[in-house]
Amino acid sequence: MVEHKNSPTDIPLPTRRLGLTDMHITRVGFGAWAIGGPDWAVGWGTQDDGDSIAAIRHAIDRGINWIDTAAVYGLGHSEEVVRRALAGLPANDRPYVFTKCGLVWNENDRKAAPRQVGAPASIRREVEASLKRLGVERIDLYQMHWPAEDGAPLQDYWQTLLDLKAEGKVRAIGLSNHDAGQLEAAERLGHVDTLQPPFSAIRRGVAAAELPWCHAHQTGVIVYSPMQSGLLSGRFTIARARALPKDDWRSRNAEYTGEKLLNNLNLADAFRPIAERYHTSVAAVAVAWTLAWPGVTGAIVGARSPTQVDGWIDAARIDLTNGDLAEIAAAIESTGAGTGPLSPSRRSLVHA
After folding, report:
1. More confident residue, 98 or 259
2. Is residue 278 flagged as an active site residue?
3. Rounded to two decimals, what is the model's pTM?
4. Of these residues, 73, 96, 142, 256, which one is catalytic?
């Protein structure tokens, strides 16, 4: 496994060690949620698998060395697309593959919300199914997608993941969408290699407790939705929000309507002067903002075409200054977008 491939300019993307694991990952990774397609509870509408495969391969060509997917994305379809995208790649060029468990769907009602299941037997069935769909012998990072709601204690499902790691089924294990108290409970059983939380300049809640906990415990953090599912891409508009198809989950989300939508788009506009200074895109600056926080190892960014990858990959190399962070904090406050801490506390907010 290589730690990076060269980009077209032969300059490798920067990497960071993922917690205490032996993996060094690029600051941005390819997110495979959207490529799961429609016809499930949280789909993004119809996708073209050919475009999705091209996007993954382009991301690898540009130097990205990890892909984040989940069994539930497209109810298995995303993992299958990832397998097709990686087929035929030499072993040294294959990226790390991260996936998740704990969301179990009903094949007879694909639109029903998946159940949050932590039963050890269920997790063991899930890992075997993911290994088969992905076409791999070992999963590089296996994460519990959400806290269980089937009565299984956290200790039971975390011990199961620890056992899978000891057995060699998975290389590293983590928790997604878990809070600091749950992280602490898991850590008492065995080290939490990673946390995968939602984090963007709009959705900032984990900066208060979870990011500091991970930083203190050397737990790697790979954040998802750093552009708030398109709102901070610099390309989103009121008209686009209104035109979202019914099978796109965003059409039913409060952040995409009314005053919240206006606040979010105003915040995206505030990123434009910074993007111009760095000769890059609003999307890249939005992702770089998440990478500026202590404890954040990398950001998961989705793409459904090679062009979308090119739109945000600059984030891997952008190091925002204290002045940039102060400017963004002021914009967050003035627009009223989102909730949570405004800026990394370790950095004094003076213009650099």
Report:
1. 98
2. no
3. 0.90
4. 73
